[in-house]
Q: What sequence folds into this?
């Protein structure tokens, strides 16, 4: 979604993950980051919102941009830096979720709660 749509999230352009890369890498990254991201339930709800065929294209593009930044290993602050690694991801995810919060439905949030419960 982020690639090829003319959407340039924070100037990363074609360096962002595509929808298929987000689908492929999301759960692996989420599992690694879960202890460092206090609102993982909202991140997972955002993932489900991005995957929802009824979500408007602009909201999907915003979410795929943020989720692409989250799943790819290149960052302003590398994820392996203890204590700081996910701070830039947190900022990007927070901004994206806030921008599209009206499109994250109770169904997305319930799917997130169910998925997180199943993975614990």
A:
């Amino acid at each position: 979604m982020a690639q090829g749509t003319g959407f340039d999230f924070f100037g990363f352009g074609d360096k962002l993950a595509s929808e298929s890369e987000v689908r492929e890498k999301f759960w692996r990254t989420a599992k690694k980051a879960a202890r460092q991201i206090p609102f993982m339930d909202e991140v997972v709800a955002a993932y489900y919102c991005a995957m929802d065929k009824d979500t408007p294209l602009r909201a999907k593009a915003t979410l795929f941009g943020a989720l692409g930044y989250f799943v790819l290993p290149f960052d302003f602050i590398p994820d392996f830096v203890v204590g700081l690694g996910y701070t830039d991801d947190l900022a990007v995810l927070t901004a994206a979720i806030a921008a599209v919060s009206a499109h994250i439905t109770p169904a997305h949030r319930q799917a997130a709660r169910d998925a997180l419960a199943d993975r614990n």
